[in-house]
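Progress report, Aim 2. The chain analyzed during this reporting quarter is listed below.
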Amino acid sequence: MEIGRGFNKYVAILMALLMFSISPISVFAANIDFTQEEREYIKNANVLQAASAEGAAPLSYTNSKGEIKGIAVSFLKAIGEISGLKFEYKPFENINDIINSGADLVIPAAKQYPLPNRTLSIPFLYSEAVLFYNSSLNPNELAGKRFAMVRGGTIPEGIREEDVLYFDEREDTFEAVHDGKADYSYSNTYSLVFYALRSGYDNIITIPQKMEDRAYGVAVREDDEILLSIINKSIEAIDEEQRQSLILTALAEVERSVTLKEIFKRYGLPISLISVTVIAILTYAVWLKVLANKHLYEEIKKGKRREEEIEYISFHDSLTGLYNRAYLKIVLESINDPEHLPISVVVADINGLKMYNDSFGHVEGDIILQKAATLLKSACRTEDVVARTGGDEFIIVLMRANRETALQVVNRIHRLCHNECAGQAFVSISVGYATKNEPERDLQEVVKEAETMMYKRKLLESQSARSAMLSTLQASLLEKDIETNEHTLRLVETTNRLGEMLQLSSTETVDLNLLARLHDIGYVVVDERILKKAGKLTDEEMAEVKKHPEAGFRIAESSRIAANIATNILHHHEWWDGTGYPHGLKGTEIPLLSRVISIADAYDAMTHDRPYRKAMSEKAAIAELERCSGTQFDPELVPIFISVVNT
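Predicted structure tokens for the chain:
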């Protein structure tokens, strides 16, 4: 493929920026359009007091030498150089001290944490959100777990206040999660990288979050409109190359305790998904530090290899090995000329990945992504560019490929996917494609056309994919003898008769029928050895078993066909007296269908052999239902159920 010139140009720019990061920025746009009033303000201004929160690394922090460092510090110096204003930077212990400091400005500041009587400037920095949690936990089961956050912050939506543990500094939240004193928290990209490098946490797992990007600006007094205008104009004067250089300068000064290899072993996938550029920066900064150390002079010989490593990391997705969004952007910009026509774009999206993750966990979901990547590569020509652009989305660029060639690739994808799916719980792939034949047509329009086709097909295909996945999960329970087909059929028959007695609506009857088939679908996440164990379960094993209602809820919720009964699945092990699980609901707080299925399921289990005991007689099982009426079971439903089984 002929994209070498564009690629090399980009790499040259990146490397130049990296080299430039070891020196301070000194050249910015000279002709800023300050008004006469603004120029007078600058001329007469004393040294302005700038406040920040201590421990907000790497935005602002004090290093081991007592020096104030950070990305925000770099930008404030640049604002001063551009505007002519002079600043004195002072860190404070907490947000209350900042509010009471009387400082002229606060940097960094974000709209998510508004300061009283302050107005926020335009952003000088953006960062994405990251979930980080203790490696002993399941990220799908964080509800009710201990959330670590910095004191004075706003509790994220969906987190209960009683689950929050407060800490003075961001670093304390990392320490708490790593040591198991807290379970999880959120961070921004730069803080994650900073503390990962500095402290080498090996007991933390990170996952990128689809949350609003955090935008950082400067907060000035709300009555100081002139200063706000000066700062906004100064930030606007910093172009993208200078902006990146300022970030690089700050990040190159990070004091590290772990190696690049360790960082990627521990954090490679999440970090690369969040900010490939940041990793390239830090990788190269490590190399610069090595070069500066005379005791490690021999490391110079490894320079070339490190450059190649930077290049690979910058443009590849670490999970699949495919190109990433950054590289795809370069390709689309480099080939947008007539010599590459016709250019076709194929957009592919995995159906049912969320349901698969909910059923088998994110580790198994990652395997699906890797399989999909291999499949897509196999369907393409060697010169085609295959990139992973998001969680479950891929884009393929085919140069000198007309619509017919693109269709051939699409057909190969479908054929390979069908072969891969045979006998497996493998999700399907929805595909769209479009072709650029005219030089004047924008390639981004072609990408959007392909995406539109893909989304239309996804609407048609995703439901069948979910249904197929649900059938596969049911089959896996039968194959493992976790459930038997006979048990399911008996439950369906019994609950149908019980539904008639209760005069359920037609919708409720359909839901109850489906609940009889799927109430224990969550057992797919429980170790088969535990479910088949003949003896008494340990406390740890019982805790695993008790996860299945929540797992079943997530699976059902992800499948439209079973979404209506997701709540019933979640609560089918609740007890009438409130001592059941997972939420300890009591009495009529428990959904009606959950109460019905719990009685029917218990009766069928008692009257048929299980690995851990022999079957009871029907008379003994009925006596047990009566004994547990009002404690485990709904006392009004038990007599009705008994009358059904006795007829």
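Residues 325-458 form a domain with the Alpha-Beta Plaits fold (CATH 3.30.70.270). The radius of gyration is 30 Å. These observations will guide the mutagenesis work planned for the next reporting period.
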